[in-house]
Amino acid sequence: MIAHLPQRLHPDSVKVSRISAVIVNSVLIALSIMHLLLAHLFGWSFLPGWIALGLFALSFVLFVCFVPDAEVRWFSFDIREEELEFQSGALFINSVLVPMVRVQHVELGSGPLMRKYDLAEVKIVTAATTHKISGLKREDAERIKQQISRLARVVEPDE
After folding, report:
1. Each residue of 122-142: pLDDT tens digit?
2. CA 138/CA 142 separation, integer angstroms
3. Transmembrane ranges (predicted)?
4. From the CB of residue 148, how many other CB atoms can be counted at a distance below 10 Å?
5. CB–CB of 99/81 below 8 Å?
């Protein structure tokens, strides 16, 4: 059996994750501020607006400063002839094995931010769920998609 080194996400995925988090959390913070302004104008309670503003500010810091680096550091995957392995987590490590015979199809996609940084996402679809490898260079994602597709067709189920 050939030993495989786990593969990691591309470092540019940190930038994409941060930009995405800034956009989403900025909209949520703006909505919270809008609620506070409306509460002032119409005499509503300020409490929901302040709670939301605090939570979204915390979310902003968390998802802009810490989560993107953690995703790249603590997520890895390995493609073997008979299975895929996904591993994530720091304190609680989650390891998932997906037998190639369970793979139904493989998809490749990327949104506008990912395309700007030449990144893509590979989705591995089984009957039970979809596993994602997001944050790969486009050419690597295409290679991985082809590799998984080829291996999923070749592997024969046990009888």
Report:
1. 999 999 999 999 999 999 999
2. 6
3. 21-43, 49-67
4. 20
5. no
